[in-house]
């Protein structure tokens, strides 16, 4: 299987798409910044969200039991699934018992993780994705490239072509309003005919037994209210203790995800509607292993807002399909290796370690620190390639010596300047003509750090008297 670098190189072959992808996501990041700045207590909210997650995950068993008790009291049937296979088998069993063969599903990263659609299709169940982006991807036979904007890698002309082929819209039609109307008419038929609805869950409130589902299209609401059978799948980490905690997360989620004050639809589901059967499947699928790891536990704080993807310079310029695993971007990098270090050993290197992901994360997951930890694990497991090992040894040698560092910097700059501009200053490269080579610092990082520490010392430490 190709590594991240090879897949990124493929994405970058279409320079126009790569540039547009980068700009589209940066636009979302800027919207997020504006909305975050408009909330004076933004940082306090992030701190609180982090503290709520830390508190809850340290007492997860207790809160899951409380949630289960209250959800059952409201009429939901609660199941636990150890892994993806068990989850899928449970869903199939529930559908079969009710004789349901057509399902409308709203966006759920957990069911993606479990490969639910691929499991159900050969068993005679038609699953229709009801989120517009997900439906586009499904009709195209593609896979999502972003956790919030699954079709962000496709241009509207391409969507028009997919709709023409699959939904019979006019050839060459790329007007978003016309395409959205066509999708709405098509999906409405599917909603009305569906025998079951399946969705993910954003939050599960222990105190009330309610599940909370946030969307911008209202598709989850149609899916969970129209059919007589509704199944919601949630990871064990989705539980939060109280309703008042929810306010903290809702203040952060949509602002971080798409730069909106709140999702268009935030639905609180307190049990099935009259005449309906409601099942909640609580899934582990490796999460309790992460829960036990002090280094990596914060990955479970994630509320899947996608902000770390939008800000990541590597993700924006390499596209979501360059990452292995279901979830791309920085959060994907720290989750995927839990499924097998060998298979995902290249993922921790798909990062510049700039820390922008950590800086925007609404729940303050220590993302870039975890990426570094994973690199450490890759090295310790002997999974680092020979070439990379040699390069890193050389780099260590150079960075440890002020003289070598200065000489290497000067030489590198000279060589780069001597190269024809096509290497660093052309439309052929994503670097683009608006960029120039960065100035090399005159002194090594080590020397700068020493100087910084020296200046930081208090007068007392320096032996000075006031
Ligand atoms: S890690 Fe943080 S920023 Fe990234 S998706 Fe999760 S909550 Fe959002």
Mean pLDDT: 91
Indicate the proportion of strand residues: 5-15%
**Proportion of helical residues:** 40-55%
Global outline: globular
Structural class: alpha/beta
Q: Over all CA atoms, what is the radius of gyration?
A: 25 Å
Question: Which ligands, by name, code or SMILES, are bound?
Answer: iron/sulfur cluster
The counted number of beta strands is 10
Strand order of the largest sheet: 1-10-7-4-2-3
Task: Describe the 3D structure.
This protein is of the alpha/beta class. Helix content is 51%, strand content 10%. The chain has 21 helices and 10 strands. The protein has helices at 4-12, 15-37, 42-58, 60-73, 84-97, 109-114, 116-120, 132-140, 156-167, 176-193, 219-225, 243-258, 287-291, 307-311, 313-318, 329-335, 356-360, 367-380, 386-400, 402-418, 445-456, and strands spanning 77-81, 102-105, 126-129, 196-199, 203-205, 210-215, 229-235, 239-240, 265-269, 277-283. Strand 5 and strand 6 (210-215) form a beta hairpin. Helix 3 crosses helix 12 (243-258), helix 9 packs across helix 10 (176-193) and helix 19 packs across helix 20 (402-418). The longest helix has 23 residues, at 15-37. Iron/sulfur cluster is lined by residues 256, 302-308, 331, 360-363, 365, 367. Iron/sulfur cluster (SF4) binds at residues 256, 302-308, 331, 360-363, 365, 367.
């Amino acid at each position: 299987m190709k590594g991240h670098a090879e897949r990124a190189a493929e994405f970058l072959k279409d320079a126009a798409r790569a540039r547009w992808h980068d700009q589209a996501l940066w636009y979302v990041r800027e919207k997020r910044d504006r909305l975050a700045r408009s909330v004076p207590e933004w940082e306090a909210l992030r701190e609180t969200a982090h503290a709520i997650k830390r508190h809850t995950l340290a007492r997860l068993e207790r809160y899951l039991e409380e949630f289960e008790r209250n959800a059952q009291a409201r009429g939901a049937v609660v199941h636990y699934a150890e892994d993806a296979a068990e989850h899928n088998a449970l869903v199939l069993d529930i559908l079969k018992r009710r004789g349901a063969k057509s399902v409308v599903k709203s966006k759920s990263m957990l069911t993606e993780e479990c490969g639910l659609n691929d499991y159900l299709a050969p068993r005679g169940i038609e699953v229709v994705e009801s989120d517009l982006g997900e439906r586009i991807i499904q009709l195209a036979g593609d896979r999502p490239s972003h956790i919030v904007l699954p079709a962000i890698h496709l241009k509207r002309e391409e969507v028009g072509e997919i709709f023409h082929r699959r939904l019979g819209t006019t050839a060459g039609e790329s007007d978003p309003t016309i395409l959205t109307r066509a999708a709405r008419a098509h999906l409405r038929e599917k909603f009305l005919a569906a025998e079951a609805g399946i969705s993910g869950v954003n939050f599960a409130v222990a105190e009330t037994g309610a599940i909370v589902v946030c969307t911008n299209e209202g598709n989850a609401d149609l899916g969970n209210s129209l059919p007589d059978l509704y199944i919601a799948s949630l990871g064990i980490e989705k539980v939060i203790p109280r309703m008042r905690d929810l306010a903290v997360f809702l203040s952060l989620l949509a602002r971080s995800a798409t730069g909106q004050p709140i999702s268009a639809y935030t639905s609180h589901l307190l049990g099935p509607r009259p005449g309906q059967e409601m099942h909640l499947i609580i899934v582990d699928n490796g999460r309790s292993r992460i829960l036990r790891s002090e280094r990596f536990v914060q990955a479970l704080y994630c509320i899947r807002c996608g902000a770390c993807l939008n800000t990541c310079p590597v993700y924006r310029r390499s596209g979501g399909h360059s990452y292995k695993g279901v979830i791309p971007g920085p959060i994907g990098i720290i989750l995927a290796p839990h499924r097998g270090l060998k298979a995902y050993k290249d993922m921790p290197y798909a990062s510049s370690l700039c820390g922008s992901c950590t800086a925007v994360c609404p729940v303050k997951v220590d993302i870039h620190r975890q990426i570094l930890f994973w690199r450490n694990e890759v090295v310790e497991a002997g999974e680092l390639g020979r070439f990379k090992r040699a390069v890193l040894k050389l780099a260590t040698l150079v960075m440890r010596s002020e003289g070598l560092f200065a000489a290497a910097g000067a030489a590198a700059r000279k060589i780069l300047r001597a190269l024809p501009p096509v290497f660093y200053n052309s439309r052929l490269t994503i670097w683009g003509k608006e960029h120039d080579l960065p100035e090399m610092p005159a002194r090594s990082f080590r020397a700068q750090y020493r100087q910084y520490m020296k200046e930081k010392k208090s007068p007392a430490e320096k032996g000075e008297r006031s």
